From TrEMBL:
Transmembrane segments: 45-72, 78-97
Pfam families: DUF5665
Protein name: Uncharacterized protein
Organism (species): Heliophilum fasciatum
Protein keywords: Membrane, Transmembrane, Transmembrane helix
InterPro entries: DUF5665
Amino acid sequence: MNSKNRTGEIALLATLQEKVESLAVELEKIKVAEYVDMLNNPRRLFFLNFIAGLARGVGTAIGFTILGAVILMILRELVVLNLPLIGGLIAEIVRLVQMQGRV
């Protein structure tokens, strides 16, 4: 009975060892050690977050500029089409935006 118990324990230990090794490989793949090192270095964490914030801000500004330009181009084309109901409104919006751009 004792040998069966030991055989079961050995099998359990082998299974646990395989799972631990598998977990270690997965943790290595997702670079947990690098993440923990970064959290332990506040200066590096601050610097990386600062650079990420700058990139997001610049990307937002560029994206909004492109989107605004496309909308203005569409509005100008609608004015050229001379739609009776919204043509005057669109012309006024384009004029206001152009005046703001000159200021």
